[in-house]
């Protein structure tokens, strides 16, 4: 059965057409829910398809950039799986079941696709959320510049995603200044992922950079794609998976949505 895709407007688009468009981009951002095996298998299939078109570098939210040397050791065949996960501090820096992600890691190793960490220390995210960038010493900014303020559609999406206007919340709208602290923290991650994608592109100028990133960072014209644009990398696509029975993202949420058959229960 062929993959079924919808474009940004919600109209049907062929698998061949969207893959050809993605292969021409500077960066392709593949969303996920972290605990969904079907999402990670889809990501692996898309990476493999894009790698048939041109060189690919795969960036991962799951690893901080400081572990790039370990990722290179894995791709180069210098570590077995257990040693890789231990040396990459998997249980500390991420913690979701590694088996969810191993198909993508094994694919990168099999095809010789460079891997790059996209993340930064959580302490920086918390500190910027609390104090803003002005409260962070330049030496403690992990090489990041302050995030560009997010568009309102993205703020609204994050506000709704995190509970909307519940009576017990201090912030009662996406525009409420009381929501700024939360959105500042979200933007640190967005800026970090974008900054490291730009660096991966600079390190591999002829390659397409594919980001493996939680879908909450990719939607409604904001998040990583928006920050990439402010950093000068204009041609990026955000692609999302959605399984049968799951709610479809609203039109405009992403550049493409792939409709997946639901996997049977595990075990």
TrEMBL record:
Domain Haem-binding uptake Tiki superfamily ChaN: 19-224
Coiled-coil residue spans: none
Top-level taxon: Bacteria
Pfam families: Cofac_haem_bdg
UniProt cross-references to SUPFAM superfamilies, sorted A to Z: EreA/ChaN-like (SSF159501)
Protein name, entry field: Haem-binding uptake Tiki superfamily ChaN domain-containing protein
């Amino acid at each position: 059965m062929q993959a079924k895709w919808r474009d940004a407007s919600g109209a049907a688009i062929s698998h061949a057409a969207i893959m050809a468009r993605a292969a021409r981009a500077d960066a392709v951002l593949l969303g996920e829910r972290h605990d969904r095996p079907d999402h990670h298998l889809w990501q692996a299939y898309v990476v493999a398809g894009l790698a048939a078109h041109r060189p690919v570098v795969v960036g991962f939210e799951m690893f901080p950039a400081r572990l790039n040397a370990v990722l290179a050791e894995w791709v180069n065949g210098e570590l077995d799986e257990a040693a890789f996960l231990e040396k990459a501090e998997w249980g500390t820096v991420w913690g979701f079941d590694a088996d969810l992600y191993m198909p993508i890691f094994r694919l990168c190793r099999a095809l010789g696709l460079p891997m790059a960490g996209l993340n930064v220390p959580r302490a920086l995210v918390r500190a910027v959320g609390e104090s803003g960038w002005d409260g962070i010493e330049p030496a403690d900014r992990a090489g990041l510049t302050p995030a560009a303020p997010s568009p309102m559609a993205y703020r609204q999406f994050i506000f709704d995603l995190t509970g909307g206007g519940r009576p017990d919340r201090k912030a009662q709208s996406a525009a409420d200044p009381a929501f700024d602290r939360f959105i500042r923290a979200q933007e640190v991650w967005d800026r970090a992922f974008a900054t490291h994608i730009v660096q991966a592109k600079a390190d591999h100028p002829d390659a397409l950079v594919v980001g493996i990133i939680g879908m909450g960072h990719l939607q409604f014209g904001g998040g990583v794609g928006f920050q990439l644009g402010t950093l000068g990398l204009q041609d990026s696509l955000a692609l999302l998976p959605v399984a049968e029975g799951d709610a479809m993202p609203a039109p405009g949420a992403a550049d493409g949505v792939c409709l997946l058959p639901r996997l049977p229960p595990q075990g």
